Amino acid sequence: MSKDPIRAGEIVVFNVDGREIPIVHRVIKVHERQDTGEVDVLTKGDNNFGDDRLLYAHGQLWLQRHHIMGRAVGFLPYVGWVTIIMTEKPIIKYILIGALGLLVITSKE
Amino acid sequence: MHSFGYRANAVLAFSVTILALICGIASFSDNFNSPSPDAQVRVLNINWFRKKPDGNDEVSLTLNISANLESLFTWNTKQVFVFLAAEYKTPKNALNQVSLWDGIIPSKEKAKIRIHTTNKYRFIDQGSNLRGKDFNLTLHWHVMPKTGKMLRDNLVMSGFRLPEAYR
């Protein structure tokens, strides 16, 4: 993730302590300290009614830089489905790896 | 070399490559669009302005936002996300950005907006620095493509000032 400062409007990827699936939401509030450059950030899903405080850890009001893993810069349609299908139906992952393995073994030269 | 498996694999790999290329070209075509949006924001009223029990200032504003964002749309645009942020400095914080309102514009036909509203999200400071505070109202837009690179830009409108006293 680039060292650029986090600004309102950017879409960031973050992990909440204790939850395994990262969330990709937009930054709606930024408070950046004068002296240390540390930042308090609040995020919200664009089409959600309220901000993400309900999703943060108990008592947590802001995200800091170390919670944020990256930012979204573009969009590729349907590519995410590959990961989703393989996570939700792991059998497909095994079939794919099995088939690839079979191809490697049975191909000559 | 000519088995069904090899042919199927070749077709699949080729079609994925072509699709990726089409996505790249579609995204690149957005560079030829030179957007010229214009916007105007007025603070119609300070509804109330107080220090909360936790010590942080909060203000409620009624805003009038008018903008023409039609030039942002291309054939490769899925929607435009637009939001208005109040931006200001305090002794402790080099930068504060607080989103006051946002909206989703799904198509070019809906891109001329006239909004009359109180702030959708609470304008709360970290601390008690808002009395007499000068601030900018910046209209940000985020063009979300059907495929490819997203485009973000904004228009800064300065010259706004909060009252010297709570009310």
Layout of secondary structure:
The complex is a heterodimer of chains A (109) and B (167).
Chain A lengths: L10 E4 L8 E11 L5 E6 L23 E4 L2 E2 L4 H9 L1 H17 L3
Antiparallel strand pairs in A: 1-2, 1-4, 2-3
Chain B lengths: L3 H26 L8 E14 L5 E12 L8 E12 L4 E13 L6 E7 L4 E2 L9 E12 L2 E2 L1 E11 L6
Antiparallel strand pairs in B: 1-2, 2-5, 2-6, 3-4, 3-7, 7-9
What is the structure about, briefly put?
The complex is a heterodimer of chains A (about 110) and B (about 170). Chain A has about 110 residues and is α+β, with helices and mostly antiparallel strands.
What can you tell me about this protein's structure?
- The complex is a heterodimer of chains A (109) and B (167).
- Chain A has helices at residues 80-88, 90-106, and strands at 11-14, 23-33, 39-44, 68-71, 74-75.
- The N and C termini of chain A lie far apart (42 Å).
- Chain A has a 4-stranded antiparallel beta sheet, with no helix packed on it.
- Chain A is an alpha+beta fold and 109 residues long.
- In chain A, helix 1 (80-88) crosses helix 2.
- By secondary structure, chain B is of the alpha+beta class.
- Chain B folds into 2 domains: 1-32; 34-161, Immunoglobulin-like.
- Chain B is 16% helix and 51% strand.
- Chain B contains 1 helix and 9 strands, in the order αβββββββββ.
- Chain B has one helix at residues 4-29, and strands spanning 38-51, 57-68, 77-88, 93-105, 112-118, 123-124, 134-145, 148-149, 151-161.
- In chain B, strands 1, 2, 5 and 6 form a 4-stranded antiparallel beta sheet that branches.
- The longest helix of chain B has 26 residues, at 4-29.
- At the A-B interface, strand 2 and strand 5 of A face helix 1, strand 3, strand 4, strand 7 and strand 8 of B.
- Chain A: It is a single-pass type II membrane protein.
